[in-house]
Amino acid sequence: MTTPAFPPGFLWGASTSSYQIEGALDADGRGPCVWDSFTAAGRIQDGSSAAIACDHYHRWPEDVALLKDAGFNAYRFSIAWPRVVPDGSGAVNQAGLDFYDRLVDGLLAAGIRPMACLYHWDLPQPLEDAGGWQGRGVIEPFAAYARACVRRLGDRVKDWMTLNEPNVVAIFGYGVGEHAPGHKLGADGILRALHHQNLAQGAALRALREEGPGLTLGTVLNLQPTVPDSDRPEDVAAAARWDAVWNRVSLDGVMRGTIPELLADRMAGFVLPGDTDLIRFPIDLLGINYYSRSTMKHEAGRPFDVGWGEARCRRWTGMAWPVQPEGLYDLLVELKRDYGNPACYVAENGCAYDDVVSPDGAIHDAERVLFYREHLESVAQALADGCNVKGYLCWSLLDNFEWAFGLSKRFGIVRVDYDTLVRTPKDSYRFLSQVARTGMLGG
């Protein structure tokens, strides 16, 4: 087998999110968000919180040094909406933006391309109290927040992503209640949250373009090729419905300005004339988060009468997610075939495992190394077949607060000791460093 090569200028790096790593939740005027409330309600499985997390707010120079030492040239981070606009829709907190000023300057000094994401799930609690993503009241505040960020940082940050995984926010936050804000509103709540995120994104993209005509604009979607659990007609139909909800509302909205035909009747009550025109926007760069395929079956009583089927794979991660690197290739080829081969990059791809610290203090995470190798082989094959892939960013730089799982799941290529906050690069860090420096996967 020949060794796959990646082109010059390919983006190599890591992604993180503000709530999962920053800590300092009461620092410098930050306001409360839905995950603060969800945690306070005792909804985190291991009883932990993000109050300290990785303390990135104070230790960011150390984390930038880790990126630089790895030879990475890109870093996708998220800006905390409640740091910048503490109540979500009022005055801008300049002290909150000061932190991102420092971070951006540090990244640029290290030769690392800052890629800012405006919303990675930390909705300011006052906006949720007013209806959150169930209504239109969040649209203009999100656009105003986007303007405030780009006016402060747009002279140095050229890559702006609007949302991260709106499908996860809608399904797990508003549909089944497993994520903040913890609502169990079923199918209607899911579709409303998807649609209003789409509308807010459209407004924010237009605000960003007005402020910075030369900026690179995009969004980040969690996309999963969806397959039926069996060839029974009811399972095939269930998989089609899930594909429409999980993938197409967000993807077809921004790329085509359309609503999936399977969902049009269900969404007719809250989709107003002109909505799809606002949602559609010619983005420059599509971020793709990929973890696995979705294997779905008919299951009455669940939203959309869809449940999880049995994935066909050889291995599973520590999250009990299937390892299916071939699905990433299929996804990239589909974007080329059906969506005009848009410029895209892998914005998240990674895995949690129960890492073991060796007696010498090292973390030999061979399963994670294999995971990355196989997924990079899929990216290399997609590139060879003409897919317009611009980069690969792993999830994640650091072990962090894994949402409702708390601190119990470790996705990082760098271990964080939550007692001492000491960072220790794992074997996976060294593997990705070697690929980033050479553009080759090696033997």
From TrEMBL:
<dbReference type="InterPro" id="IPR017853">
    <property type="entry name" value="GH"/>
</dbReference>
<keyword id="KW-0326">Glycosidase</keyword>
<dbReference type="Pfam" id="PF00232">
    <property type="entry name" value="Glyco_hydro_1"/>
</dbReference>
<keyword id="KW-0119">Carbohydrate metabolism</keyword>
<keyword id="KW-0136">Cellulose degradation</keyword>
<dbReference type="InterPro" id="IPR033132">
    <property type="entry name" value="GH_1_N_CS"/>
</dbReference>
<dbReference type="InterPro" id="IPR017736">
    <property type="entry name" value="Glyco_hydro_1_beta-glucosidase"/>
</dbReference>
<protein>
    <recommendedName>
        <fullName>Beta-glucosidase</fullName>
        <ecNumber>3.2.1.21</ecNumber>
    </recommendedName>
</protein>
<keyword id="KW-0624">Polysaccharide degradation</keyword>
<comment type="similarity">
    <text>Belongs to the glycosyl hydrolase 1 family.</text>
</comment>
<keyword id="KW-0378">Hydrolase</keyword>
<dbReference type="GO" id="GO:0004565">
    <property type="term" value="F:beta-galactosidase activity"/>
</dbReference>
<dbReference type="InterPro" id="IPR001360">
    <property type="entry name" value="Glyco_hydro_1"/>
</dbReference>
